Amino acid sequence: MNYAGEKRFTIWSSFSLVILAIFALFIIYPLILVLCKSVIDPQSGNFTMSYLTKFFTRKFYWSTLINSLQVTACATLLAAAIGLPMAYVMRSVKIRGSGFLDILIVISYLSPPFIGAYAWIQLLGRNGVVTNWVNTIFGIQFDGIYGFAGIVLVFTLQSFPLVYMYVSGALKNLDNSLNEAAESLGCTGFERITKIIVPLVMPTLLASSLLIFMRVFADFGTPMLIGEGFKTIPVLIYTQFMSEVGGDDGFAAALCVIVIMMTILIFLAQRFLANRNTYSMTALKPMTAQKITGVKNMLSHAFIYLVVGLAVLPQVVVIYTSFLKSNGGQVFTGGFALQSYQATLFSKDNDVIWNTYMLGLVSITIIVVLGILISYLTVRKQSPLNSALDMITMFPYIIPGSVLGISFLFAFNNPPLLLSGTALIMIISFAIRRMPYTIRSSTAIIGQISPSMEEAAISLGATEMKSYTKVTVPMMMPGVLAGAIMSWVTVISELSSSIILYTNSTQTLTVSIYTEVIRGNYGNASAYSTILTITSIVSLLLFFKLTGKRDISI
Amino acid sequence: MSVSIDIEEVVKKYGNDTIINGLSLHVKPGEFFTLLGPSGCGKTTLLRMIIGFNSIEGGKIKVDGRVVNDIPTNNRNMGMVFQNYAIFPHMSVKENVAFGLRMRKVPENDIDKQVDEILKIVKIDHLKDRMPIKLSGGQQQRVALARAIVIHPEVLLMDEPLSNLDAKLRVEMRNAIKSIQRQINITTVYVTHDQEEALAISDRIAIMHNGVIQQIDSPKNIYQRPVNTFVSTFIGLSNLIDAEISKNQGCNASIVFDHGYCVFMENIKDTVKNGQKILVSVRPEEFHIRSAGEGLKATIKSSVFLGLTTHYFVQLENGQDIQVIQDRDEQDIIPDGTTIILAVNPQKINVFHYENKTTLIRGGKE
């Protein structure tokens, strides 16, 4: 597929080199620095294992890793246990308003998990609405769900949509004739689900579960807000690095290394499983949702509505709270007012929304331009250089946001690369973090464009560069733009790296929500969250309009 | 024991659209019966009504005299081979074939025996432990067939099973299917849109068009004595040429073409009247090309040499374009522009009513 096989060095090679250099500077270099800091004593400059030993010898530290693994495993299993039956029911039974429910599910997935955490605190926390209600009715002293239960609740409700979307996509590729064949051979009902459907979607279920595992494992905001005494490892990293008294760089770096090791393990497990059992299926006639009657119908509806209801409940709570009247601080005084919006949206010197949009848009532009180029290089111009590129650009995929944030501060805190505190460092971190997703979707799109398109253009007298810009890029554009919208939504709801990298002048919506929640000012936090939610919904509608689809694959 | 299938006045509706309105047919025990028609004619719909994937809005379907309308698919004991085979991708060949037996709670060692036996019949016993992804199209087809017949169904249903195979494999597989069907003597309903396949494989064919059966007959009769112009042009190539009946009182009729070419017919119905307009259907291979004498005057526009035969595109005097096929050894290729005379064989041509397009040949059904 390499037309210019004879010419060793082309314009494409120089692109490869430049991109490789960018990634080396912004991924490899900071990570190496983290690795170094974790094993080198800053005073003597000698090799030391003291940081790592410190972690593994003190229960206070290593228990966070156990906590993280427990919470993650529980939430992942529960998410799979909810997402799988939901996908099957939605695909096989006609549910009233299923199109709308789909949108609600996507919205609940796209909102940052920590918003769910603080919304649930308002309901089930120490002073939550539901808590107070339960305590008065039953005369008990329920203390609210903090710690393990709270984290698992929030993560489960936040993660099942991913399983749902993936499995639903797999079911769409499952030809109905498989169901019919099973039926004609005497296999129906529940038996058909366990013998045919579940084994066939199992690879997808595993893949999506591992994605969730990675996401939940790396999430910082939720356990920080609802965890209280129950500390997970991302919380430990943040507190170790940020604590004003004796923030310990070396120890934080060691923690980062441990976390990266874990995520690499999960990533490799996912790769292994995904390669092992995938069935390439294409459906001529996909399953269609059937109208059913009676108890089954009622149960299906009840199940779907209940789960979707719980999933969007945080959003509803947040929007409701944003209109409550307060004393300007932490106490709601009853009645409704637009006060929270006056304090956030219309207050002067408040660049939060502008910051979010500006940083997000610049990042997305970089992501799209580089993403298209990188995927083109790795698919069409296969060479050792581009294989390296392929591998390095996937790296950010397995690096948790807080780790990336810390490594950036290590690397770019001194001249000549003094970037910390600038908007640029935020943009670079956004772009680097979301790049793998765009590269993956663009790679899939290029795979569907026949190389003969470009060959045709070249045979008609276009240069390679012309055929790329005039033929390939325009053909990719609709798919890439759709992917970019999804990336945009995830960029604006990003917290774990921006909480480490932000300064007052680069504060984003999510950071503001987080700091307002920490201050206890739920009114302002809710107003910010509502703005974020509305932005996500508008983006989502744009996505649907652009793709003409109702499905989302992330 | 083989069973018969009786379809009596069945109706299929999707919402307000009636796809099939009162269709009846009878499949004899052990027969290889084919539903043939263009896409959208309702043949697959009818097949899926027989197995129970489609509901029946009116009429009855009987198997061995029992009405099956309300029996769920899994209790109908019918085997089906799907267009895309529907091989379970997560099961090996053996597991796929054993699936139906397991559902019937057949003891495990019996399953092994029956699976081995059936895999030998379809000639893929060496692929027993393969996963479906490692099978070719033809092999997948054999697995699908084995899986459908291993459960000893009363009826075997096949929905365009060969349409995803390449031309050569298609011929090989249709011979395999026919011989296996003979071997186990099972009543089979086969759906296809490929007329050659239907002619090659079937005991009888039902030609369907717009949800209505046009003709049910043996492949030979369907080809040689189509009941209407739809069948005559759908099966094989037919040239339809305008003509008139010429008939003296009491005598047999002749047909007269535009420019006076007159052919005496022995098998035309008595109901025809003198001067009645008709359509004459002539297969391209049934023309005799002459250089002089009685016949239709025509000019050769172009020709295609196909090895076994030569294909001529010719124009009649009235401007109509028709096709003529000649055997290789009949004569050298006639150059373009040559004027020829085309004679027809009165025993082989078919004559249709000008308005309602039905046959006017005696013995043909209306």
TrEMBL record, chain A:
Transport listed as a keyword: yes
Keywords assigned: Cell inner membrane, Cell membrane, Membrane, Transmembrane, Transmembrane helix, Transport
CDD domains: TM_PBP2 (cd06261)
InterPro entries: MetI-like (IPR000515), MetI-like_sf (IPR035906)
Transmembrane stretches, start-end: 12-40, 60-88, 100-125, 145-167, 196-218, 251-269, 302-323, 357-379, 391-410, 416-432, 480-502, 522-544
GO cellular component: plasma membrane
Chief localisation class: membrane
Domain annotation ABC transmembrane type-1: ranges: 65-270, 353-543
Alphabetized Gene3D superfamilies for the sequence: MetI-like
Keyword Ribosomal protein (UniProt): no
Bilayer topology term: Multi-pass membrane protein
Localisation: Cell inner membrane; Cell membrane
Superkingdom of origin organism: Bacteria
Family: Belongs to the binding-protein-dependent transport system permease family.
Protein name: Iron(III) transport system permease protein
Source organism of the structure: Pelosinus propionicus DSM 13327
Taxonomic lineage of the native organism: Bacteria, Bacillati, Bacillota, Negativicutes, Selenomonadales
From TrEMBL, chain B:
PROSITE patterns, per the entry: ABC_TRANSPORTER_1, ABC_TRANSPORTER_2
Keywords annotated in UniProt: ATP-binding, Nucleotide-binding, Transport
Record-level Gene Ontology MF annotations: ABC-type transporter activity; ATP binding; ATP hydrolysis activity
Pfam family, one: TOBE_2
Entries under SMART domains matching the protein: AAA
InterPro entries: AAA+_ATPase, ABC_transporter-like_ATP-bd, ABC_transporter-like_CS, ABC_transpr_MalK/UgpC-like, Mo/tungstate-bd_C_term_dom, NA-bd_OB-fold, P-loop_NTPase, Transp-assoc_OB_typ2
Name of protein: Iron(III) transport system ATP-binding protein
SUPFAM superfamilies hit by this protein: MOP-like, P-loop containing nucleoside triphosphate hydrolases
Domain ABC transporter: 5-235
Example of a GO cellular component annotation carried by this entry: ATP-binding cassette (ABC) transporter complex, substrate-binding subunit-containing
